[in-house]
Specification:
The structure is a single chain. This protein has helices at about 1-40, 45-70, 75-80, 85-115, 130, 135-155. It has about 160 residues and is an all-alpha fold. The chain has one domain (about 1-155). Helix 1 (about 1-40) packs across helix 6 (about 135-155) and helix 2 (about 45-70) packs parallel to helix 6 (about 135-155). It is elongated. The relative contact order is 0.16.
């Protein structure tokens, strides 16, 4: 179990670090876009599109860390009204529903990625599937975060 948890933590850390790197690159691209548009008088349109894609990727990748850290907005009020024994079952249900949702994102996201393979990104000429691939990969990398958080909650219960 220790190795599985270490692997899952590694996946979450990788997703978190990749998201930070992509966000930094997107910030640089937006700065470049402003300089070329207002400083040079000719905008580099591709930089705006690429920055948008990188922000989408970073948002979906950082979900893994968000789930792991418990940073998603919980509805604790309803759970706090329940007795402790029922609370853990609510946590289990929420974890199960979250995993089902992420599985649907992986499945449908992959389907969408394949469906848009022939579509090209304007001003870049690359396949639109590179942007859509963030959906299944981000959801897949979020699953270990959900499971690790759930294991922590199970260990914390009285």
């Amino acid at each position: 179990m220790k190795y599985v948890e270490a692997f899952a933590e590694g996946v979450v850390q990788l997703a978190h670090n990749l998201a930070a790197l992509l966000l930094a690159v997107a910030t640089g691209l937006v700065f470049f876009q402003v300089v070329t548009r207002f400083g040079l008088g000719h905008a580099a349109g591709w930089s705006e599109i690429l920055a948008r894609g990188l922000i989408i990727w970073s948002t979906l990748l950082v979900a893994a860390a968000g789930f792991r850290l418990g940073a998603m907005i919980p509805i604790d009020f309803i759970r706090s009204l329940l007795p402790p024994r029922a609370q853990i079952w609510v946590i289990r249900l929420v974890t199960l529903l979250t995993l089902v949702f992420l599985a649907v994102l992986v499945w449908q996201g992959w389907s969408m990625t394949l469906r848009v393979q022939a579509q090209r990104v304007a001003m870049m000429g690359t396949s639109m599937s590179w942007f859509y691939a963030a959906i299944p990969l981000g959801a897949l990398m979020a699953i270990p975060g959900v499971l690790l958080r759930h294991v922590d909650q199970e260990r914390e219960r009285p």
